[in-house]
Hints:
Blueprint: E1 17-18, H1 20-27, H2 31-40, E2 47-50, E3 53-57, H3 58-73
Antiparallel strand pairs: 1-3, 2-3
Amino acid sequence: MSEMSPFTAPQRHSGRLLKMEDVRRETSLHRATIYRQIQAGTFPRPVQISRNRVGWWESDIEAWKAGCAASAMT
């Protein structure tokens, strides 16, 4: 995969909040890879849902996937 620029979240969140297992299914990434990319700034940051639960806005994951597809075409 080519070098990706840091992830920029959409201004407006839409859709539902996805759990880690949903994000893994959508991206085909391992949990550790997701958190490594969050630290690098190349993957959307989760939002805190409760004390022990985080989620990702579906729109953020869709934007990330679109960015990956666009960078793969170049």
